[in-house]
Amino acid sequence: MRRTFVVADVVRPAGYEDRLRRVLNDLHDSLGPTLTAAVLGLRAARDLVARDRAGTEHLLARLEDELYGAITDLRRIVADARPPALDGAGLVLAVRRYAETLTDRVPAEHGPLRVEVVVRGELPPLSADVEVAAYRIIREALVNVARHSGARQCTVHLWPLDGDLHVDVVDDGVGTDGEALPAVGGTGLRSMRERAGDLGGGCRIEPVASGGTRIAAWLPLAAGK
């Protein structure tokens, strides 16, 4: 006897698509940078193991901590919570800590990548929404620098101006012809734009006159308050 199955239409709750987009962006912008840094660290450990056993063991211990952090981050994404790196640290310290994970792990043509974080003036208290968006945007920008630019130097600038938090990530790598840059023309750039746009800000990519690339974002300081 032939059996017939009837599949009922799935009724999705209001806001389902927006929630799904946020979760996918969080997975991309949170776990992606963490796992990228871990892969770069493993490569560095492989190159280091033959000449510095103690240094290799120290690096592997750091990688273990970072991967445990990724597991915690994943759990918080599922629970719709803020990134654990921001807890008790704030935006600037969290960005500096991530920048440290990339320093010396990324071999460039003329030497290892160095990442500097510069705060211009004094940042006002940031809402949770602005802090999270800025942190995710900066990490995604740094991942693109590390993976695709061939840069030796990268600087993250943060400053308040005219009611916005401004974020610039500038590198001295291969450069770009604007939006045509393959490395950030897909999910990464789209996610950065969406995060900024959701708060009423914006994000763009542009070449630097002296060579390299600038990713610039601006986020209204009043967002989320």
Report on the structure:
The longest helix has 33 residues. A hairpin with a 2-residue loop joins strand 1 and strand 2. About 8% of the residues have low confidence. The chain contains five helices and seven strands, in the order H-H-H-E-E-E-H-E-E-H-E-E. The strands form two sheets. A five-stranded mixed sheet has the order 3-4-5-7-6. The protein has a two-stranded antiparallel ribbon with strand order 1-2. It has 225 residues and is of the alpha+beta class. Helix 3 runs parallel beside helix 4. InterPro entries: HATPase_C_sf, HATPase_dom, Sensor_HK_TwoCompSys, Sig_transdc_His_kin_sub3_dim/P. Keywords: Kinase, Transferase, Two-component regulatory system. This is Sensor histidine kinase.
How much of the sequence lies in strands comes to 15-25%
Per the principal axes of the C-alpha atoms, what is the gross shape? globular
Mean pLDDT: 79
Quick one: how many beta strands? 7
Oligomer: single chain
Low-confidence stretches: 4-14, 178-185
Helical fraction equals 40-55%
Structural class, from helix and strand content? alpha+beta
Q: What separation lies between the terminal Cα atoms?
A: 63 Å
Query: What is the H-and-E element order?
Result: HHHEEEHEEHEE
Sequence of strands across the biggest β-sheet: 3-4-5-7-6
> What is the makeup of the main sheet?
5 strands, mixed
Rounded Rg: 20 Å
Specify the number of helices: 5
